[in-house]
Amino acid sequence: MARLTIADLQQMKNDGKKIAAGVCYDVQMTRILERAGVDLLSVGDSVSRTFLGMESDDEFSLEAMLLFGKAVSRVAERAVINVDMPTVVCNAGPKAVEEATRRIREETGADMTKVDIRTQEEELFDDVLAVIGAGLPVYPQIGFQVFEPRHGGPEAHEHIMKWANAVQDAGAVMIDLTNVTLDIYADVAKTMRIPVIGGQTGPESDGRIYVSYSLTGYRSDTIDRTDGGPSAARYIYEVVEKAIASVHDATWVAP
After folding, report:
1. Each residue's pLDDT tens digit, 18-27
2. Alpha-carbon distances of 48 from 1, 19, 25, 55, 98, rounded to whole Å
């Protein structure tokens, strides 16, 4: 299985092919996503809330990020690997980001790191430069928080275009654009030389990123979902419920 590179992702944009990205944190989901044909594996700091039960990404340390980054990179065979820069490091300034970048590169073997500067572009832009200075390709996240309504209109368009151009000119290799209207996704993807993907976009952009645990319903809050969406959690729950009942009833069969 040939390993994809950042240059391959750039060529996909040049050729009009869409980039499929998946957020994952563990060995099993990594193998599933790769078998399904994912192009980019993104080890997100959202693991802090999804798997570790933290209330805020600000509680999530670099040491924890490295642990999950190593797990994914240990078994990945084809996809480009991104390992997020933890928010707590971004907020600590460029020197902290530079040191963390070296560790991410050396300890996880990541191809790039995503720096989330959404809504703080002015304050955190130097973090983008720090990653590049430390010798690892950077993948900035710009835009708005996902719990807000989609942002559109001239003011949002101007803001996004300003910072998309800024990170591209600085040397970013890809952009994660979050929570804007489809016309802004389309214009940014058309204007930028580098790939522009997002979690709320359609085919207007250069690709789509899915949080695999939400995509598959591997979340406990989907056990009782009624919207017709997938629920891996429901399947797991039913298997476990049956096994537990067989123990309580003394009807289980020895393996």
Report:
1. 999 999 999 9
2. 31, 26, 10, 8, 22
